[in-house]
Amino acid sequence: MGDIVFVELPKVGSEVTAGKTFGSVESVKAVSICYSPASGTVTETNGTLATSPETVNKDPHGSWMMKITLKNSAELDALLSSADYEKFVAEEGGH
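-> structure tokens emitted (95 positions)
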């Protein structure tokens, strides 16, 4: 994707739906859509990303984008663990 130069996040109080768009990440090469991992209400966004979007490049796993109050915690059961995600990316030819 390249170096991140802009991050668009939802407003606090907005509703997000699992699998639906909540924002975008722009790099020097492309714009990528971000999809919500679960449904709920946005309670906080990472304001650091508005002024320092490159934080995602330095610490992608630690650069959270939003916090939500879940509508249905069972949706989390369908998500990959960090280890499973890393394995998936490696198998797909990623990092």
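The helical segments are 48-51, 55-58, 82-91.
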